[in-house]
Amino acid sequence: MDAQTTQRGRDENKPQPPARRSQQPPEHHQTGEQGGGQERKPKSSLRDRLREHWILSLVGAGVLIVAAIAALLYWLDVRDYEWTDDAFVAARSFSISPKVSGYVTEVPVTDNQHVNAGALLAKIDDRDYKIALDQARAQVAAAQANIDNIQAQIDSQHEQIKQAQAQLEQADAQLKFAQQEEARAKDLLEKGAGTVQREQQTHSDLNAQQANDARAKAALIAAQLGIKTLEAQLESAHASLQQARAQQAQAELNLQYTNVTAAQPGRVVELTGAVGTLAAAGQSLMMFVPDDIWVVANYKETQLADMRPGQKVEFTIDAYPNRKLTGHVASVQPGSGTAFSLLPAENATGNYVKVVQRVPVKIVVDHWPADLPIGPGMSVEPWTKVR
Question: How many whole angstroms separate alpha carbon 125 and alpha carbon 277?
């Protein structure tokens, strides 16, 4: 009894090995309203879920089919268009400058104002130009008076020519009579019926009439030469009149140039002219943007295979993305943009790298919106239907 008790105490003092964990999974209990634990059901498969929610499955499948059809239709439509974001509004803007110099006395326009063709943009002091016009008109009047004077001299010279011709005819008649008288006196002297004195007298009269006839001829020639001189003076006077009239026309133009007007409808921008400014001829007073504007789209050269004039274009302006505008292709530039730049590219080098070039395409807009301020330089995104 004592030995068994001693052996049992030794066995209790020996260290015991750890207990082996059970391979069975722990039981999961659920606390329900009934308070009893139940075993968890296994997860359902995807097929079972689809069967369980068959209405939602049909709706989802229908949405996917509609989305696929819409994507296909969109792709079929988009592939017929060429798009670029390298486009902008363009116009032939120019500077407004006076053609004559002077002080600016009036500027009836302001910045960004729209004006019609012929509207007054600025006015130059015109007092000097009115004086110049009066002087030119006086020169025209003087030249005209000179012509009238020469014309009167020519008319008088014509009368002198007629008088000289009459005197020449009279001298010719007297010369003819003197010749006849001298012949009769000589004949009578030869027959013995006349005297030497008579023959000498008739001969002297003949010489006098010959001199008179020569003088009449010289007077006629002088009168005829005088008319040529006057006609030459008349031509010179006509030239002086034309010159004076040209100066008058120039003076009238200079007076008109004091009114700087708009040659076409458009908008005034960058106004620098002000009343009191001394403006020189050719000095810029303002910039002018005509109403005639268009779109320049720089398409890649790989996008031009099917692009032709007349094709429809739809585009939006970045400033007004909610407004879609329409137009058509007017022309395609025969060459890339770099070919017409100040320093065109030179590709004949050993380190040549091919780069897709941009070609400007002019797009004419059907109708610009009147309620939107649109001007050159504004960015545009055009879609050109090429197929």
Answer: 11
Segments of the chain assigned to CATH 2.40.50.100? 95-125+259-286
CATH class of 81-92+289-385: mainly beta
| Contacts of 103 by beta carbon, 8 Å cutoff, 6+ apart | 124, 125, 276, 277, 278, 279
Q: Where in the chain is the domain with CATH 2.40.30.170?
A: 81-92+289-385
CATH of domain 127-256: 1.10.287.620
Range 95-125+259-286: architecture per CATH? Beta Barrel (2.40)
Q: State if pTM tops 0.70.
A: no
CA angle 29-34-36, nearest 5°?
30
- Token pair, residue 169, equals 């005819």
- List all residues 6 or more positions away from 314 whose beta carbon is below 8 Å from its beta carbon: 324, 325, 326, 382, 383, 385
Q: What pLDDT tens digit does each residue of the chain (387 aa) get? A: 444 444 454 444 444 544 444 444 444 444 444 444 445 555 557 667 766 777 777 777 788 888 887 777 666 565 788 999 999 999 999 999 999 999 999 999 999 999 999 999 999 999 999 999 999 999 999 999 999 999 998 888 888 888 888 888 888 888 788 778 778 777 777 777 667 777 778 778 778 878 888 888 888 888 888 888 888 999 999 999 999 999 999 999 999 999 999 999 999 999 999 999 999 999 999 999 999 999 999 999 999 999 999 999 999 999 999 999 999 999 999 989 888 887 777 776 667 788 899 999 999 999 999 888 999 999 999 999 887
Q: Where in the chain is the domain with CATH 1.10.287.620?
A: 127-256
